[in-house]
Specification:
alpha/beta; 2 domains; 10 strands; 31% helix
């Protein structure tokens, strides 16, 4: 479902600030894989996600989604295949619009536009169901503007917006990092439930090493723009935070141990 082939990307090439963000990176995810990417600052995690999403154009290599080469497609032409949730709760929704209006906009992503009602009774019921799973009372506030929501509520909405399109690929860019521990646990639980229920091919970037061990069927570690370690199956299930720290001499000040 995701096939990244020998990606290479250098920012500010030819200047003293040149940074080799991706160095011959290859990664293949089969349909239904849930891979978690960890690494310190500057490891290349976000650049990898941006390259898959189309926000960053690689200097070399290619990105394939569902056996289609999308390397040169802009982000809006990948919208029918990919959904993404960002770290910043404000990045994934329009504050001046209501909850149900945001969900209606999300549903239209990647689809051919026609004239018709964006909000029907059927859609309103499905939108209520989509946010009710978070147990935050959003289903009772569907006509309220998103700018009135807390950060956790807004991030829950962003996840619901990403899922409502039934994407082939879900990209999660540290989507729980800005939340308080209780809300982060709720959002992560809803994420895992959705991924497992819908069989979504998912790539999640996190600094939280325990999340990387606890969730997903694959773990990918990056450092200096390279993939330095991968684990799956029984090997991944046997990993511990302490073992990773000892083996790779981690961590920096932005990586979380628990």
């Amino acid at each position: 479902m995701i096939d990244v082939r020998t990606l290479d990307k250098t920012f500010y090439r030819g200047t003293p600030s040149a940074r080799h963000a991706l160095n011959d990176v290859s990664l293949r995810l089969d349909e239904g894989d849930f891979a978690v990417v960890i690494g310190g600052n500057g490891a290349g995690k976000s650049t990898l996600l941006n390259a898959i999403a189309g926000e960053v154009m690689p200097d070399a290599g290619s990105v394939w989604i569902d056996e289609t080469d999308v390397t040169r497609r802009p982000p809006h032409r990948r919208a029918g295949l990919i959904s993404r949730v960002f770290q910043d709760p404000l990045a994934g929704s329009a504050g001046g619009m209501t909850i149900e209006e945001n969900l209606a906009l999300a549903l239209a992503r990647g689809r051919r536009r026609t004239l018709g009602l964006a909000l029907t009774d059927t859609r309103r019921r499905s939108f209520r169901d989509a946010v009710a799973v978070f147990n935050l009372g959003l289903e009772e506030r569907m006509d309220q503007k998103v700018e009135l929501l807390s950060g956790g509520q807004r991030q829950s909405l962003a996840l619901a917006m990403a899922l409502v399109t039934a994407p082939r690929v879900l990209l999660l860019d540290e989507h729980c990092a800005a939340l308080d521990p209780r809300t982060a646990a709720t959002v992560m639980e809803a994420t895992v439930d959705a991924v497992e229920r819908d069989g979504l091919t998912t790539l999640m970037v996190t600094h939280n090493m325990q999340h990387a061990i606890d969730h997903g069927n694959r773990l990918v570690m990056m450092m200096d723009g390279k993939i330095i370690f991968e684990a799956a199956g029984a090997e991944k299930r046997s990993l511990t935070v302490e073992a990773l720290i000892e083996r790779f001499h981690l961590v920096d000040d932005k990586m979380l141990l628990v």
